[in-house]
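User: I'm curious whether this sequence folds into something compact or stays loose and floppy. Could you predict its structure so I can see for myself?
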Amino acid sequence: MPEWEKAILGVVIVVLILNLAILGQLASMTITLGNIASKLDKVSSDLGAVSAELGKVSTTLSGVASTLEEIAGAVAAPPPVKPPPVKVAEFHGAAEWPRPPGYHGNPFAPGGVGGCYWYVYEPLFFYLPGNGTYVPRLGLSFEVREAGKVVVVKLRKGVTWHDGTPFTSKDVVCHFHITGGLLGWPWRIAPGVYLESVEAPDDYTVVFRFTADPGIALIPILGDAIRAPYHYFGEFLEDAKKIIELRKKIWAYQDRGETPPKELTDELAEAEKAFREKVYEVKPKEPFLTIPGTGPFIVKKVTESVMILEKNEKHWAAATTYIGKIIIYFWTSNEVVWSLLMAGKIDAAHPATPPDVTEQIFMMQPRIRLALPSDLGDFCIALNYRKIPFNDLAFRKALAYAIDRVKLRKVCYYYGADYAPWAHGILPTFMKLWLTPEQLEKLPQYPYDPKKAEEILLAAGYKKINGRWYMPDGKTPIKFEIVAPAAWSDWVLAAEEIARQLTEFGFDVKARPIPNPVYGPTLKAGKYDAAIEFGFAWWGSGHPATGYMRVYGPTGYIRIVTAFPANQTFDTPWGPLSPEELAMKLQVAPPEEQKDLVFKLAWISSEYVPVIPFLEKRLVIFHLDGVRITGWPPSDDPVWTIAPGGIERCYVILMTSGILKPAE
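Assistant: Here's the prediction. I'll summarize afterward.
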């Protein structure tokens, strides 16, 4: 056999052996290489025999191929190689919430939903006090018509609640009726100024009708988080409407200076109680942990120590939201948050921090920055007017003189602005914008003056015996507590310093921390003597009307906590005036009338001392750049001015607009 024939035959046999090996049959073959050589010699007689062998081999190969095809069909193909998982950008923060098992997921029920609130729920618009602009959210635009009496809002299309239900104007109508049934707000804005109706002419238009221009009250209305989806709360809509109508009847009597009939107020009280019980009982449906919102994040886990949210992939701004997960650590105390900042565990937080701790944080985390915008609020001493001697004006004035408020600020909140000697309710940062030097000279002032405090108390009949102060009967020592929320070290320090100063002055005063979850309810129930609180807070609007409404308005938090009789008239240089009526008028007053109303309210606040403000809070916002996220704006950017009263709104704007991004 020629060598080329042997080569061809060798190739054929090698191929045959390889195919047999694939079938697992090679091991059973007994033909050795020597036998194969012998076979080659025998088939070398002539080319015809070789051709015959080649034909047989070809037939065999065809069978092998068929067998291989059958095997390939019976054995599953290997799984494709998975690409490496995409890293999810996380934002870490700190906040509070009702701890399980007390967590319920209902934003209206006592305790609410805590720190996830502004991530889950959205308003029609955000308002930036720093430049007076509105940022569209659920609303795209609004138009003011008929001299302010009609406001038409155009809604964003394609929005859904977290459970997939389409968001429409019907949800907005439902929301403002549920809040009106629970709170009365925003249906009465000022005497004679009411929200008449909220209408939905089509799925993407909402019409607010007022009896008169609502003035700056429009800001919180458009900025209120829409959190009453119709498919959850619609069944209570008619009950809410009935309660609002009852309220309007009562308000009409009050606006005329008349006392509403008892049967009417009793009917309202009974209806309110039943309505609250129904609304508070609403719970989120599985798998959701909150009543669904429309916001950019959805709550996925709630424990005693952590709350986890994940990006809402169906959110209208999902394409420009680069943060995939939010982890919120429970704000147990400022000290805990300091340690988290030092360890680089959180990306932003605003604990009250003394200078030495601030320096430690900077040293431990060089990438941390600091923004110090005004919080648009003040720290104050809230006094319980239900109790003696706090309902005595002379005693309140003596307290204002007896406390060194400058030292108090340095002890509890170094970065705050001094309020002393004033008590007028105008934040020091904005004082020159609202009060002239001539007006300031006419306001009562309270510099630190223990001697003056002593003169006032003695003139009012109080007794000082062996360095201790007694009530006018000379037998009852003046003894009281000042409370503060236990988790807020700045307020605890303030309570302790006030107790120390007043005890040194001659009173018997003790500071007592109260757990944060029950602090507000304790104060609202009147179960305290004196308390550290936010006083004339301008949150949301950056306008003094908001602060005065908080202290004097019918539903103002400080008004409720202190039980200060703001609806009564007080003697003033302009005659008897009601601070409640003045504050409500200020909300809707044209610009040319506002400063006159502000001066009158400043005088009443200074003369009658409903609270004792001791510092303007500046937010100490630590923000870590370049570890998990990057893109924080400069400290003078107007977006920081929305932080007071809900700092998460600032973070949401930055996240959903794509400004905050994953760090490289």
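Summary: The CA atoms of residues 536 and 547 lie 4 Å apart. Confidence is low (pLDDT under 50) at residues 2-78, 81-85.
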